[in-house]
Specification:
about 50 residues; two-stranded parallel ribbon; alpha+beta
Length: about 50
């Protein structure tokens, strides 16, 4: 089973770069723009669309 990582950054291109690198290392990655969005993701309330 893949380990999950939540990335939080306001730069879409940075989140995409980090996501690609972590996914290539075998992680399941979810991204958020800011802390409130990350909190919602942790609670399963919404998912960000890249």
């Amino acid at each position: 089973m893949k380990k999950s990582i939540l990335t939080v950054d306001d730069s879409r291109s940075f989140r995409q770069m980090v996501t690609l690198n972590l996914e290539s290392a075998g992680y399941r990655v979810t991204g958020a723009v800011a802390a409130p969005a990350a909190s919602s993701l942790e609670k399963g309330e919404s998912r960000e669309q890249f």
